[in-house]
Amino acid sequence: MAKITSHKALSFDVYGTLIDWESGIVTALSQGYQDLNPSKADILHAFHNLEKKYQSLYPDLPYSQLLSKLHPALASQLNLSPPSESTSQQFGDSVGLWPAFPDTLAALKRLHKHFKLAVLSNTDRASFAATNNTQLPGVEFDAVLTAQDIGSYKPDRRNFEYLLEYVNRTWGISKDEVLQTAQSQFHDHYPAKEIGIHSAWIVRPGAIMGEQGKKGEEIWDWRFDTLGEMADAVEKEAGRM
Q: pTM, whole model, 2 decimals?
């Protein structure tokens, strides 16, 4: 197997990998309801299924608007009272408030010493900019590619083809030199494997969304519980070179 350090660019899923979107979603939903009875698992399972459906139905809709659009359906599935239009808008605008995992900032800065850092995210440009400014301050990604730029949502293979074309045209980096770095098997690892991109699974133990694989099936090339662990492995490899 190739080394992690044989790659030249890391392509990041952001929400779920760098950002604790599960906590962010639950917190954002709770803003409209004083007593949120459904469990975190029930909320996230319902959200994940609706997000999948709405991204398929509305591939050109910016993510913040898609969240606002699915919010009433999410409330209905969870037996909550119908939200007001302003509450749904607030839910859609919450992306920039979702918190980063504790290890994310330091790990990104360590990894940037060894790789180009690219974002391949299902969000829109404004929502990611809010995240970058408020939750990932000081991190300068070398490329930011969003679903809004591409016109489709992962796991659509067009998003990964767009990434590969971009890094080759812009940096002269080939497919074998790109490492998809992500938590979600559904959004990232399955399509990456299908198209032949190496991937590193950032597990984020306890995560509920994004799991898809059969038990024991390894659809990634490297596995780390946190991004900090991946940065440790990279520095260990680089120290041996």
A: 0.94
Which residues contact residue 93 at a Cβ distance below 8 angstroms, ignoring those fewer than 6 apart?
A: 64, 68
What count of Cα atoms within 13 Å lies in the side-chain half-sphere of residue 76?
Answer: 7
Give the tens place of pLDDT for each residue, 132-184: 999 999 999 999 999 999 999 999 999 999 999 999 999 999 999 999 999 99
Over the Cα atoms of the chain, what is R_g?
Answer: 18
What is d(CA 17, CA 199) in angstroms, rounded to the nearest whole number? Answer: 13
The residue type at 174: S
Beta strands in 18-164 (DSSP E): 116-121, 143-146
Catalytic member of 13, 20, 124, 188: 13
- Let me know: does 230 contact 18? Beta carbons within 8 Å: no
Catalytic (active site) residue 13: yes
Task: Summarize pLDDT for 2-32 with one digit per residue, the tens.
Answer: 899 999 999 999 999 999 999 999 999 998 7
